Amino acid sequence: MKSKWVYRRLTFKEKARQLVGKRVVVTTTNGTFRGVLYAVEYDYLTLRRFEYGSYRKTYIRIAEIVSLRRALTSSTSSSSLSSSNS
């Protein structure tokens, strides 16, 4: 009997959505950003960063992301995602 379930790989955005609310490090073609992943939209991520004494939202285009990983803390390990520009 054939299985009903079809397994597929998660897309970059689906994996990124699993990190919403977590501290992350985003490496782009323009630099590295650290903060809490706030939202994953159609073609950009929203990152909440503490900068110049207050919290600011930074919008990062998905096409410019080289890697997205969970920020290291003393009790957790890091998980990393890579984006391809296709």
Please outline what is shown here:
It holds the Pfam family DUF2642. With 86 residues, this protein is mainly β.
Task: Give an overview of the whole structure.
InterPro entries: DUF2642 (IPR020139). Pfam families: DUF2642 (PF10842). The chain has one domain: SH3 type barrels (Roll). The protein contains 1 helix and 6 strands; from the N terminus they run H-E-E-E-E-E-E. Strand 3 and strand 4 form a beta hairpin. About 6% of the residues have low confidence.
What attributes characterize this protein structure?
86 residues; mainly beta; SH3 type barrels; 1 helix; elongated
Total number of distinct structural domains: 1
SSE succession: HEEEEEE
Care to count the β-strands? 6
> What percent strand?
over 45%
CATH class: Mainly Beta
Estimate percent helicity: under 10%
The CATH architecture would be: Roll
Which quaternary structure do these chains form? single chain
Number of helices: 1
* N- and C-termini, Cα separation: 37 Å
Largest sheet: 6 strands, antiparallel
| Contiguous uncertain segments of 5+ residues | 74-78
At the fold tier of CATH, the topology name is: SH3 type barrels
